[in-house]
Amino acid sequence: MTQPTLNYVNCPDAGGGHRMAYWQWGRADSAHLIVCVHGLSRQGRDFDVLARALSERADVRVVCPDVVGRGESDWLKDPMGYQLRTYAGDMLAMLGQLHAQAPVVSLDWVGTSMGGLIGIAICGTPNLPLPVPMRRLVLNDVGPAIQWQAIVRIGTYLGQAGHFGSVQEAADAMWAISQSFGPHTPEQWLALSRPMLRRVSEAADAKWRLHYDPAIAVPFKQETEESARQGETMLWQLYDNIKAETLVVRGRQSDLLSTGTAQAMTQRGPRARVVEFEGVGHAPTLIAPDQVAAVTDFLLG
């Protein structure tokens, strides 16, 4: 399959519910499900290269959701719903739907940044109604402790949807704040950028904006250094509960996942294995062949 199919799941919330979109690759009735969840301001098509590689190499079903407020998913009526609890609940609803469609026998998770935090919450919370226990977990440049300066950096641009005259102009603007992703060819970056954009209106000459609800920034910008420390304590407790075999992927120049935190993750909880990529910060895009190989070998090896 060279392109994914777009699907939806209905998720409950206090405002009457919302739809979450997800992109599906591979064989729809495969018993091996791999869920790939993107970062804070990204969307599910970020995983096109990885999902294609996985589905070409093995009989798997790869599902890449657009977390609510992003991509093809609904926007929430209450911005304060844009938090980890909502996201984890939506993933459970999606897993339930997928399991009903085709029984899941083997379940893996790949999470970049925010997607990794959702994975920690789901893997580390006891007695959740998962189809089967999580088998393998990939945490892409994230862990229980997040460097405060990275939160401040992300806060400087999050929520600014922008108006751009062309896809290339938007891609250039995104590159200006995303160079920590590491080297990409112009073609790779344009492919990553196109799904990040929507027309401002139906007019043929309408400008482009970023794909997400600017209100995802509301709860994020209420975070303080003290609340971040409190969240860190909770995340370490969840991490210590994880039973899945775990791989941590880290950009060696990451300002979000420190060397010390990555090292601690090898000694606590699931005792993760760490692989680092030189010349990359936060976060590896899992497009470069060595990054794709590291993840596919871990999940399918």
Main sheet: strand order: 1-2-4-3-5-6-9-10
Distance between the termini: 21 Å
Shape, per Cα inertia axes = globular
Helix content: 25-40%
Return Rg in Å.
18 Å
User: Structural class, from secondary structure content?
Assistant: alpha/beta
Q: Work out the strand percent.
A: 15-25%
Give the biggest sheet: 8 strands, mixed
Number of helices: 10
- Say how many strands there are: 10
Q: Provide the succession of SSEs.
A: EEEHEHEHEHHHEEHHEHEH
Compute the average pLDDT. Answer: 96
Spans of 5+ residues with little confidence (pLDDT < 50)? none
Provide a descriptive summary of the structure in words.
With 301 residues, this protein is an alpha/beta fold. Helix content is 35%, strand content 19%. The protein has ten helices and ten strands. An eight-stranded mixed β-sheet has the order 1-2-4-3-5-6-9-10, with helices on both faces. The radius of gyration is 18 Å and the shape is globular.
